[in-house]
Design goal:
Two copies of one chain form a homodimer. By secondary structure, chain A is an alpha+beta fold. The first copy, chain A, is about 30% helix and about 25% strand.
């Protein structure tokens, strides 16, 4: 792909003067611990080939930031490894536009990257800071804790039906669902409020049951979820096929809401946007594979 | 790829207890600045489909560490985003074996990762530390500086000929060349010695001329390389087709040696393994695209 270097430069170098070196330097605020996460979005696995490049650029940033939210971290910086079949401007222009929109929205700088030729794969490494010893983790849930989620479940799974032209609900909900898939809100503010409050946290990327199972497994307990308390959007409540809605809500991935556990005595301190959906009990988690699992460690 | 989660856990979780959370925490030594780099190795672009998985695991680590070497940084940690068609043990066992061998050799911990389904792509984000204000960069070369490289050029390009069964040299050199491709030595010790000595540095991944051009472009100068002084291995010196050797040495990528510039007055302090191959002059770098370019920023 010799000769397209100039095009890459044109679209990426304006993001930061830090780009274009072998390494990028990063300053961690005093008293804070650096945290990092790496995640890939792969064509045909995580998004359909017809996904708009602008939406992919936006989504690559916010899904990465969601991992920081789950750790209770404030964002510091972002690096991007972009593998693409060819470096054409018609794709790069909207992709970098979406990238910039998300980075500006959450005040995060792109400090490094790598572009290579191959099947479309977008890998983001994201950096954040948490106060020493306070990072939220999957381990830590205790018997008797309440289980909360930060927003409605199943919208992203329903969005895939919209994309495939088989959405069974009202037409008016389609854009809402597509936005929930392409533009999930990383719950950064909530994550920071959960420091010192939540006993364990995770962001729901692989499905409510699968990710709840991971918290249980890491914590050596079981998370019992009451299906009837799982919050649903008006869009999903408009669908008459309740089995379908149940599958989306319990096993659909990509919602990027936070799931966290909190001692019952602290429940009054949980921000109002959250919903209690169950309780932590003694026992060993059965890993059911009920989620939308693309074998993540 | 539901159901293969257990297999992934089996092969990756033994690397570190930090794996399996949304974020991994990282401690930066006092007085040091964190530096990071991200790089992808893509099947058919950076390695052939028949590449042995063990060698790919090793190479993913050392090529990432090479970026730290070019910055003069000491390694701290490593995260991996692995996209693969299927999660079979026959591939994961040797791949993680090579990964572990390299991580152990250079005393680096795997602290986080993501595995996804798709075409084979190995993306590494690596973390290191340099003393404040001392990171080596591409910018900084000055008119009159000498240009040095840390080892022989062109071996990795010749290794591709070995893989394709069209190596024109003596058979006895084949394993040496394959090792130079799959197991390049990240010049970490040299990089640290260059702190406060080199005016600019880069690791040669895209070809000597292309990467020298980047240093010139970033520094606002021109790097003039004397072809006759470019060091060659005994393997390459055994090849009679001098045009072919010249192409490998000047434009072949993947050698992962360091190129750096140093004031002539400091030349006596340059470690003995290095070779002076040219001089920095005034002028503007012509980006020729002569290297093995997969459009990296």
């Amino acid at each position: 792909m010799t000769g397209e270097f100039a095009l890459i430069q044109q679209y990426f170098y304006p993001f930061s003067e830090k780009l274009g070196d072998d390494c990028a330097a990063l300053e961690v605020p005093p008293g804070m611990r650096l945290v990092t996460s790496i995640d890939s979005l792969v064509e045909n696995t995580h998004f359909p080939p017809e996904a708009p490049p602008r939406e992919l650029g936006y989504r690559a940033v916010v899904t990465a930031l969601s991992d920081l939210a789950a750790a209770g971290a404030q964002p510091l910086a972002f690096t991007l490894a972009l593998t693409m079949p060819d470096g054409d401007a018609a794709w790069l222009e909207p992709f970098t536009g979406g990238l910039r929109e998300a980075l500006d929205t959450f005040n995060v700088e792109l400090i490094g990257g790598d572009t290579t030729q191959g099947p479309l794969t977008i890998t983001a490494a994201v950096f954040g800071a948490v106060p020493e010893q306070q990072m939220l983790q999957r381990r830590g849930a205790r018997v008797g804790d309440q289980i909360h989620v930060s927003g409605p479940m199943g919208d992203a799974a329903a969005a895939l039906c919209v994309m495939q032209g088989r959405w069974p609900g009202a037409r008016k909900h389609r854009q809402y669902l597509l936005d929930r898939f392409y533009r999930p809100t990383p719950r950064l503010e909530l994550g920071r409020k959960l420091l010192g409050l939540a006993s364990a946290a995770i962001d729901i990327s692989d499905g409510l049951l699968a990710d709840a199972g991971r918290v249980g497994q890491a914590s050596g307990v079981r998370l019992i979820i009451d299906e009837n308390r799982v919050p649903l959007s008006p869009a999903l409540r408009s669908v008459t096929d309740r089995d379908l809605v149940r599958t989306w809500a319990l096993s659909g991935g990509d919602d990027y809401e936070l799931l966290f556990t909190v001692a019952a005595a602290d429940a009054h301190r949980v921000p109002g946007q959250c919903t209690c959906i169950g309780e932590v009990v003694a026992g060993e988690e059965q890993v059911t594979g009920g989620g939308y699992s693309h074998f993540p460690p």
